[in-house]
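Lab meeting tomorrow. Look over both lines:
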Amino acid sequence: MAKMFSFRFVTKSLYFVSFLTFHFSFSISGPCFRKG
């Protein structure tokens, strides 16, 4: 049970981190892409 919970927590945190990095990179490259 603990292992399953930790696995789910790791998956959720990994998904959250990837989403954050994607949003951050998009917000940075967004205006530059629109300008160019």
Summary: The helical segments are 2-35.
